[in-house]
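Quick question, first post here. What does this chain look like in 3D?
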Amino acid sequence: MFLTIHATSAIVIGQAITNPIGAFLAGLASHYVLDAIPHGDEKKLDGLSLANMSWIATLDQTILLVNFLLLFHYKPHLLLTSAVIAAVSGAMLPDWLTAAHRLSEELDNKFTRVLHRLLDSLQNLHHYLHCRLIPYEIPFSLGLALQLVFLVGLWVII
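> Answer (accepted):
Ran it through. Tokens below.
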């Protein structure tokens, strides 16, 4: 799923779970649950160059920012509580760690080699849940439509 879906679902979580630690953990868990649902991009990013991955990540972050701005405009009751911030951080953390793992492959120094080894197990779990738990691939266009349905549903809940 794109970060927009992860972060928006985490807003719902942060509104429901007011304890920041609980919200963070629930947001983190929600990332893996949502990634286990086939959504069309499971293999799209495999083998992309670092430059292409950076471009896609920038686009994803930009859409996320636009989504947040629209949410705050159209949902003025939405508050950025510590639980909401913690849930959103937890929900986005696996993709940020994936980026760090990918970057650590490209850079060759002692720190990045250690970082890469530390993140390997977590990255393997993320990849398993994203691509192998439910080994069914849907077309990218259908995945985008599915994510849009999720986004609209989350907006309604918020």
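The chain has one domain: 3-91+134-157.
Residues 50-74 form the longest helix (25 residues).
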